[in-house]
Amino acid sequence: DESMTREQAVSGFQSHDPTERTRGQYRSLSFSASRRSVMPAWVIDKYGKNEVLRFTKNAALPIIHYPNEVIVKVHAAGLNPIDISMRGGYGAATMAMKRDPLNMNQSGSEFPLILGRDVSGEIMECGLDVNYFKPGDQVWAAIPPWKQGSLAEFVVLSANEVSHKPKSLRHVEAASIPYVAATAWSVIVNTGGLNKDNGSKKRVLILGGSGGVGTLAIQMVKAWGAHVTVTCSQNAERLVRDLGADDVVDYTAGPVEKQLQTLQKFDLILDNIGGETEKWALDLLKPWNGAKYVTLVTPFLHNTDRLGLADGMMQSGVTIGCKVLKHLRKGVHYRWGFFAPSGPTLDEISEMVDAGKVRPVVEEVFSFAQVPQVFQKVEQGHARGKTVVSVIEDQKE
């Protein structure tokens, strides 16, 4: 039972399987990386538009610094809108603090920076405290934004951020899921309070349902028995209906709020769009029923970049404080949703994938040489699912 193994592994559980014993003696596949210190990667040396992307064969090879870390050989990488934002410097102040809490490095020390938040690949090396994984395991992960990303040959991660990838998916399919799944889970389960035990018959509205987070969120809440309404443009309607959406509202066919006001009220609203939507969306919630509106479009990182960390947190705190109070008067809850990296979350998603409840929605796969085109494509918006980079062609699959 795999669900036990992570906990057993954390508590230092040792197997009595004779093949296991030999593993402790070698903790890495004898891969040529041990004899070299550089790898191919796409990096940026400063923040800006697409021209800051640079391909290099001399990026520093990641090494294990902590005993709970693993090195993953990247087979496929997924791109998300946050990569476009980060290329332009979004979140730089907050990320710098996460990377260097004591502020010992000079500014700009994050460069050359490797972007890419999704990875599917193979474990090459494990720190000495890692018992749940072994070299050769096929894994996937959502990489936290303050760590070096997946547009490279190798990436180093904490074992608690990594999960065994679904057996039913190829790497290029698997790489489309972790970041949006971790985000959707964080927003729906942790912030929205919906899960497989209480989801039945709940009414969920997803504003902007055809992108990465939306396409995953639809499938998740449908698997838990919820009723799902989605807004998207007309040409994405078939996609979201195929994923299980019950009601689809076409935002190109007139004001969305007018169309939505004719429907029953909702228990949970997930907002991928932001801006003007919060002015009217909260009125669509069931009052005094624990109903929640969760937005993924938060000013938090933007404020900390603009105002510095302390003032930015103050400003964000004031903003959310006002909004929370304003809406509590109407008996509905206003929340901000954030991405939270989590291996155990991905374990659950992996089970849902292998059980046929969640499938990858891959719009296009690019080669490693085409990374600048991938950024251009994601930057244009209007996504139908996810865009993926095949870093090494899947030889095994």
Automatic annotation (TrEMBL):
Stretches for region Disordered: 1-28
Lineage: superkingdom: Eukaryota
InterPro entries in the cross-refs: ADH-like_N, ER, GroES-like_sf, NAD(P)-bd_dom_sf, RTN4IP1, YIM1/Zinc_Alcohol_DH_Fams
Keyword Lipid biosynthesis: no
Residue stretches making up the Enoyl reductase (ER) domain: 48-389
GO biological process: nervous system development; ubiquinone biosynthetic process
Reaction(s) the record says it catalyses: 3-demethylubiquinone-10 + NADH + 2 H(+) = 3-demethylubiquinol-10 + NAD(+); a 3-demethylubiquinone + NADPH + 2 H(+) = a 3-demethylubiquinol + NADP(+); a 3-demethylubiquinone + NADH + 2 H(+) = a 3-demethylubiquinol + NAD(+); 3-demethylubiquinone-10 + NADPH + 2 H(+) = 3-demethylubiquinol-10 + NADP(+)
Pfam families tied to this protein: ADH_N, ADH_zinc_N_2
Keywords: Membrane, Mitochondrion, Mitochondrion outer membrane, NADP, Neurogenesis, Nucleotide-binding, Oxidoreductase, Transit peptide, Ubiquinone biosynthesis
One cellular component term from this protein's GO annotations in UniProt: mitochondrial matrix
Subcellular locations according to the entry: Mitochondrion matrix; Mitochondrion outer membrane
The UniProt record lists the keyword Nucleotide-binding: yes
Pathway: Cofactor biosynthesis; ubiquinone biosynthesis
MF (Gene Ontology): nucleotide binding; oxidoreductase activity
Main location: mitochondrion
Biased composition (Polar residues): 1-16
Family annotation (PANTHER family): ALCOHOL DEHYDROGENASE RELATED, RETICULON-4-INTERACTING PROTEIN 1, MITOCHONDRIAL
Family to which this protein belongs: Belongs to the zinc-containing alcohol dehydrogenase family. Quinone oxidoreductase subfamily.
Protein name: NAD(P)H oxidoreductase RTN4IP1, mitochondrial
